[in-house]
Amino acid sequence: LEKMTDLVAVWEVALSDGVHKIEFEHGTTSGKRVVYVDGKEEIRKEWMFKLVGKETFIVGAAKTRATINIDAVGGFAYEYTLEINGKSLKKYMENRLKTTNTWILSLGGTDYRVVLEKDTMDVWCNGEKMETAGEFVEDGTETHFTVGDHSCYIKAVSSGKRKEGIIHTLIVDDREIPEAVE
Length: 182
Description:
single chain, mainly beta, Lipocalin, 2 domains, 1 helix, 17 strands
């Protein structure tokens, strides 16, 4: 593996299937552009006469669209911005906080990252979409799934307040897991 001498930007992007590392090399003399996702080369362009522009590629199991924008900011200085699904990384992550819940837990010495996509009620665990079974209960709903030999469910209960909406709680082996902040 050659040394990344032209590495100009590194981003960490939390998606439902995990946290992905995006690295970008930009040779400002050769115009070379290389994009790595989780250490794997996705795009390589050796000679580019145009030093500005964009590179679009796919990230993660859900095939999320990502774009790196390369803009000149005077002289030989460049600015690199990452967009996820057409939104700036900051906007995308702010929106994700509203549309997902994430829990980090350790079971039997193994770490798990559980993500609920509130709009679809899809549950992801360590990069895999889980088989789930939903059921209505007296005060809301429960979405059941298993992690290893542990029974889990996400309980959805109305907060009673319009601004707060629905409160989602992860229960593993009858104990509540606190939500993680990524």
